[in-house]
Design a protein that fits this description.
This protein is of the alpha/beta class.
């Protein structure tokens, strides 16, 4: 017979599952026809049908974008069989699909619970009436946005059909809302007021649908599903009507559960495939709600003590659920008053957040971790947290560069230069390193170097190492077994050879030694670069040509320079020119990304880097992007803890708040605080909880630390004595130290007996150091800085001395000091050829520099013995010479000055005279090389005042060049004239026309005794003194020319006579050039007469002749007077140009500008150039 009102009521109320089953499934069938008809192209199934089938293990479900922004889903297994090989994947797929269904259900349940709490439905509602079969899933084949337009629901599309019920349904009321049934069952509204007796209504519905008692019973069986596609997208969830009932109708034994517990039971049904009785629930989960609160808690405690088991452990013992799911279910089901959950849920938002994490990141938050994860200590700070906006911006730039080769893409505005700033320890380097690693995986070549504090003088070596890495990568690619890399390496070598001639490549090999490995035919001895003042711009040119040749090939380069605030101004200028070069070449800008990192608190408005950055901002060919990293928020810290511990937000939120309060979000401080808590086992793995655990109250009560420095110092106290000794020794070398040097220190007084290397793993576990490749690094320069400064000053000085002297002893530095004079060792100025045999007997320059640096860090204050002071001054001299040989004049200047500092109380004494001579002369040379001409003049004058004249020629040359560079031409000319007379140059004291003509006639007669071939083919051995004299003559050219000295022709004649008597070599060519230039001036005497003759035949031709006269006058150093023969209109050069413009005489216009260029060049007019 048809069900009675009471049986219907019992079925809907859910007091008896057996009474409810047939009616529920009939109602589902009726409802599905309505849903399917309203949503074309979608499929609807009850949640019960889905979870009781095997589709959760064989079909990949995707959440619509309304529920998830991620699509990294696990694909279904290829086979539907149940073989053991597929089982792990099937289990993961089932867990992931169940999690997505649980997430969808939780969001729907939360909204429904919110409606009831707001009493939107009217009357009283009992969510415990809801059963799994009351939830209808709507889904569509394929992934989101795949295969046509997807039906898009609202953010949470829940069709609560029960909202249409006007009244309650109980034994005393047989009235049901006809509008509801009309809407759901397509039944016509039979009465005006919409109300009919319920039995009559149901009879009509069953008759209409031809449903009898047998059919009702049959529908209790789960209908077969026909889901052909392997991929489905979940669109929304609908809930079948909840009929409101009187509380008096509840079964007396029915337990009042909280909405959280109800939802927990439903989610458990999803994960358990509907079999919720697969484990034994602890007895304390069925405590009657009418007990007093205290009694409930006492009983719960007693039950736990008796059974020793919790719901979590019961779920875990089944082996059917991941640990994260067991934790989720137990914390939900045991969330009520008197229950035993240690971390009960307090809101549906936390449930949804847990499930979203599991769904979006299943490998991290859903699936069980391997034993190796829990067997090792967690290490914080490995990922990149709290930098989403900055990361997005930087990756947008890289994506734009990658798309630049596409002709359909808009053209780039310029070369991309990104500058990342922030406070020390804010995670700048870590952030860029993560981006670099990502781009390397995409095929980019990523190069990174880091400047060091108090090592600004080593900036050139650091930039050199950047390009050394670039070329070394090409060398490795060239010999790679990967065909693509090998082809790229060979193409790069060919491109470089095409862009640079042999002499240029030879010069570049001095700066980048691996160039010879890339291009073996390079001869490093064929360099023609000899001038120190050309080294900077020549270096810029060579580096830009090298980079341009490599960027012409289809592979992108990211160049990163860290801690730019410690780079010297000279190298900052080189960096700026490199960026500018790529911006001026449209074919290169799409393959180059520059990233600079600096500490904004150390860069003031007057800082050299601030000036260079301001310049780059104004350039149209450079697109400057500035990213500033701030402190980490509590949310960012929580993300870090979640990622490393694999725990949900609700469990780490408290720890994140404590960490943020103690560190103010300082990234480095946060990382080291958390790692210190791991190291002292405050954060440790709990076997009982199957997760990392901690005591928040204990952590909150720890002594407050005012800075990361305080934390470092406090952690050092727990180190073994030998480990602390090793750490302090390492800090004396800066942020990085090669492992080969670490091994070299074995047996030294500054290393423990076991050696430093044996303690590196333990220090790495603490997060203090990292060992990567051939080097050991401090995890941050702040770590190194705080370790270093925690050493007492006197102990620190002695430690530096011990390290320096030990390394020097190992390499024989004290036994192989170079003692030759300064002009015999500076190859770059080519005063004389270097002694190759002595070069080979010198110790390695790198180790000389390391040993000398340690001595300089100790400082002269640490040395009182006079012999030791002289010894260390000599070490600095040798290190300075080594740097100068590499044209690294900034570093050379540092060593020369440091050497002088060790002799400050014993300068220019008998036993230190030669040493002072070499050091002061070195300062003069190095300062000239970096453009500090005032310092050059000061130190050169000091040398000249203290050494014999014959020994000062090199310094005299540097002095004259510096005076020229300072624009002090008259002073340079007078100094040079006095110098030449001391060298026995025959120069008349009266530069009258007659004396000039006589000198030129005499010189012409002497030179005419030799033919051109005889002079140019003579190969004579010329000593170093005369070579240096020729260099001095060459230096004087600029001073005499720009000061229009009347002695110029006399000096030219004297120079030719001197070289004819003392030997002809390549350096003496300047004498013949000067003499030839003076002979040109004699032509000027007859030019005026020739111009008058030309005016009679062609005025335009005469103007060209006048232009030639102007050029000769400039070359001869004589002013070109007025032009009376051309009338009033043309009285000077400007008038001549104006006349040419009016008459459109393009040849004359071009000629005038050419003369101007020559004049500006020889007179040093940079602005004119």
């Amino acid at each position: 017979s048809n069900p009675s009102p009471t049986s219907i009521h019992q079925a809907v109320a859910g007091s008896s599952p057996s009474h409810r089953l047939g009616w529920t499934d009939t109602r589902i069938g009726l409802t599905l026809s309505k849903f399917t008809m309203n949503r074309p192209g979608t499929t609807s199934r009850s949640l019960q049908q889905i979870i009781e089938s095997d589709y959760l293990s064989n079909i990949s479900f995707h959440l619509n974008e309304a529920y998830s922004n991620r699509s990294d889903q696990l694909e279904p297994p290829c086979s539907t069989g149940h073989g053991s090989s597929d089982q792990p994947t099937k289990n993961k797929l089932h867990s992931l699909n169940a999690t997505k269904l649980a997430l969808l259900l939780s969001k729907s349940f939360a909204e429904l619970e919110g409606k009831f709490n707001n009493n939107e439905e009217g009357g009283e509602n009992d969510l415990s009436l809801l059963q799994i079969s009351d939830f209808i899933l709507n889904f569509q084949p394929g992934k989101p946005n795949e295969g046509g337009e997807m039906v898009q629901p609202s953010p949470v599309n829940i069709d609560i059909l029960g909202s249409k019920v006007n009244g309650s349904l109980d034994d005393d009321d047989d009235i049901i809302d006809m509008n509801l049934l009309s809407d759901v069952f397509d039944s016509p509204n039979q009465q005006p007021n919409g109300e009919v007796p319920r039995k009559k209504l149901l009879d009509n519905i069953f008759d209409k649908l031809d449903i009898n008692d047998e059919k009702i019973v049959d529908t209790a069986k789960t209908p077969s599903l026909h889901l052909q596609s392997k991929t489905w997208t979940l669109l929304s969830i609908d809930i079948i009507p909840i009929f409101k009932i009187d509380s008096n109708q509840k079964a007396p034994h029915h337990k009042k559960m909280s909405p959280m517990q109800i939802l927990g039971n439903h989610i458990h049904a999803i994960y358990s495939r509907g079999n919720q009785q697969s484990f034994s629930l602890p007895s304390d989960t069925t405590i009657s709600p009418d007990l007093e609160e205290n009694s409930s808690k006492q009983r719960s405690s007693k039950q736990r003590a008796t059974n020793g088991r919790s719901l979590f452990s019961s779920l875990l013992e089944t082996g059917e659920y991941p640990v994260s799911v067991c934790r989720l279910l137990s914390d939900m089901i045991e969330s009520g008053d008197g229950e035993s959950a240690e971390n009960p849920f307090t809101s549906f938002d936390d449930v949804i957040q847990d499930l979203e994490q599991m769904s979006n990141h299943p490998e991290t938050f859903l699936y069980d971790q391997g034993n190796d994860f829990y067997s090792s200590n967690v290490l914080f700070g490995q990922g990149c947290y709290g930098r989403v906006n900055e990361l997005t911006k930087l990756l947008e730039i890289s994506t734009r560069l990658e798309g630049s080769d596409d002709l359909s893409s808009p053209p780039l505005d310029g070369s991309e230069a990104v500058f990342v700033s922030g406070a020390a320890g804010s995670g700048k380097s870590h952030f860029v390193q993560n981006v670099g690693s990502f781009l390397e995986n995409l095929g980019w070549m990523v190069l990174k170097v880091k400047f060091e504090r108090v090592m600004e003088h080593g900036s050139r070596e650091i930039v050199s190492s950047l390009f050394e890495k670039l070329v070394s990568n090409l060398v490795a690619m060239k010999s790679s077994s990967n065909k693509e890399d090998a082809d790229y390496g060979r193409q790069a070598a060919n491109a470089i050879s095409d862009a640079l001639d042999k002499a240029s490549m030879s010069s570049l090999a001095e700066f980048i030694p691996s160039m010879q490995q890339l291009i073996p035919e390079i001869d490093r001895n064929s360099s023609i670069i000899t001038e120190a003042d050309m080294s900077h711009w020549q270096l810029v040119f060579l580096l830009t040509q090298l980079l341009g040749a490599i960027l012409s090939l289809p592979r992108r380069i990211m160049m990163c320079l860290d801690d730019l605030q410690w780079c010297d101004s000279t190298m900052l200028m080189v960096i700026r020119e490199i960026i500018l070069y790529t911006g001026q070449n449209p074919n290169l800008m799409g393959r180059f990304l520059f990233v600079g990192i600096y500490r904004d608190e150390e860069v003031t408005e007057t800082h050299p880097f601030a000036k260079e950055l301001a310049t780059l901002r104004t350039l149209r060919t450079i697109v400057v992007t500035e990213l500033k990293l701030s402190s980490l928020s509590t949310k960012c810290i929580a993300d870090m803890i979640m990622s490393e511990t694999r725990l949900p937000m609700r469990l780490v939120r408290g720890l994140a708040a404590v960490a943020h309060k103690k560190t103010s979000g300082h990234a480095l401080f946060v990382v080291h605080l958390l790692n210190s808590l791991v190291h002292d086992s405050t954060i440790a793995y709990s076997p009982r909880k199957q997760r990392f655990d901690w005591n928040e109250r204990k952590i909150a009560s720890l002594r407050a630390l005012d800075s990361v420095a305080t934390l470092f110092i406090s952690n050092l106290s727990s180190l073994q004595t030998e480990a602390l000794q090793s750490l302090r020794t390492l800090s004396c070398f800066g942020v990085q130290i090669p492992l080969s040097l670490v091994k070299l220190l074995d047996g030294s007084p500054c290393a423990p007996e076991q050696g430093i290397e044996s303690f590196l793993p333990g220090l790495a576990d603490r997060g203090v150091v990292e060992v990567t490749g051939p080097s050991a690094f401090f995890s941050h320069d702040l770590v190194q800085q705080h370790v270093y400064h925690n050493i007492p000053v006197e102990e620190r000085r002695q430690l530096h001395l011990d390290i320096g002297t030990y390394i020097a002893c190992k390499i024989g530095l004290g036994l192989s000091l170079l003692t030759k004079s300064f002009e015999d060792c500076v190859e770059d100025l080519k005063f004389v050829e270097p002694d190759a045999d002595q070069e080979s007997s010198s110790p390695p320059y790198a180790l000389v520099a390391v040993a000398t640096n340690q001595i300089n860090f100790a400082g002269p204050e640490a040395v009182s013995d006079r012999s030791q002071q002289m010894r260390f001054a000599q070490w600095n001299l040798q290190a300075g010479r080594g740097a100068a040989k590499r044209s690294n004049f900034q570093t050379a200047l540092y060593y020369y000055k440091s050497g002088i500092a060790f002799l400050i109380d014993q300068l220019w004494l008998e036993d230190t005279h030669q040493l002072c001579h070499d050091l002061y002369e070195g300062v003069a040379l190095a300062s000239f090389g970096i453009g500090d001409y005032s310092l050059t003049v000061e130190k050169a004058t000091t040398v000249i005042d203290h050494v014999p004249f014959e020994e000062s020629l090199v310094t005299q040359y540097i002095l004259i060049r510096s005076l020229d560079s300072l624009g002090r031409y008259e002073e340079g000319a007078s100094t040079g004239l006095e110098l030449l007379r001391k060298l026995k140059f025959d120069i008349a004291t009266d530069p009258s026309p007659s004396s000039v003509m006589a000198a030129m006639a005499e010189t012409r007669k002497a030179a005419s005794a030799y033919s051109f071939n005889q002079i140019t083919s003579r190969r004579q051995i010329v000593d170093s003194k005369n070579r240096n004299v020729y260099k001095i003559v060459e230096a004087l050219v600029i001073s005499f020319f720009r000061s229009t000295s009347p002695y110029f022709p006399l000096v030219a004649c004297a120079a030719v006579n001197y070289t004819l008597h003392n030997g002809i070599c390549e350096d003496s060519a300047i004498a013949f050039v000067l003499f030839g230039g003076e002979k040109l001036s004699l032509l000027l005497n007859s030019v005026d007469e020739l111009l008058k003759s030309m005016m009679k035949h062609s005025k335009e031709g005469a103007k060209m002749a006048l232009l030639n006269k102007m050029l000769v006058s400039e070359l001869a150093g004589k002013p070109c007077g007025p032009f009376p023969d051309f009338g009033v209109a043309i009285h000077d050069e400007r008038a001549l140009l104006a006349d040419a413009v009016i008459k459109k005489n393009l040849v004359l216009i071009e000629g005038i500008h050419f003369v101007r260029f020559n004049s500006a060049f020889w007179r040093g007019g940079k602005s004119m150039l």
